[in-house]
Amino acid sequence: MSLHRLPHSSSGIPPAGTVRRSFVRVGASLAAAGMVGLALAQPAAAHSGHSSRAGHAGRGASAVRYVALGDSYSSGLGIPDQVDLDCGRSDHNYPTLVAGGVHAAQVTDVTCAGADTGHMTEPQESAPPQLDALRPDTTLVTLGIGGNDLGLAEVITRCVLVAYLAPNGSPCKDSYTLLGTDEIRTRINDTAPKIEAVLEEVHARSPQAKVLLVGYPVILPDDGSACRDLIPLATGDFAWFRDKEKQFNSMLAQQAAVSDATYVDTYAPSVGHDACKADGVRWIEPTDTANAAGFHPNAAGHWSMADGVLAAVGR
Prior knowledge:
Low-confidence stretches: 1-32, 42-48, 53-61
Oligomer: single chain
Number of strands: 8
Strand content: 5-15%
Mean pLDDT: 86
Number of helices: 10
């Protein structure tokens, strides 16, 4: 079922000293461009997650016991209201919306900004391994992971820096394809077995669960156009970055297919709502705003992601 809009908090991103203190600083030029929030943030002292009962709905043989795993694209970094400041977790993230949509009897959301595949089985500072949230009777799992393994924040940082050298060219692409080697393609390939291993472990710990691997929504325009007034990348690097994100999502879809999981395509539904679009149209913020952290989905983006998850579970 499609979600209906809920009232959205008018409060902004928490002040300095809360979520912002946890960001990886990605260079003076990036900060000057107002894009510090794009870092898939490393939490200063991540909390262990949130577990709750969602009322009496769904209890019994068909009760949904839901666990949400993932990074800042799942936690809702910067979206009001932030209920876990260290992990950048919002009460308007897609796991919260999905939990309501499936009338979950139990919800455990351990999504955390800065998480990579290693943090599924190892602690993330003070946060325990995310997979520890799984139980044998868990019936639904969403996983949104891989961006930090790919080094997304580092890639965007480099693209911003080198754009000053050749604003009308594709210097970032050139820097990642020196000597004929596609470094980002290599990173994507290297991340694939890590995703597969995580999915296998999810199945092992929660054999009854329907497992959904959630892809990443469109970040830059799907048509390859540029918006240097909002995002200071070189003109030719917009299309290159788009292609790399598509390759990354394609890898995630392939890993879901071979690991008995369902891939949730969040890219296609978000085309036309990229970070270059106007406020009120975009689902990805081009910089830190009151709606979300820079280069992260805002509340509207999470509504769309939740719709995709609910469609995959037949709700």
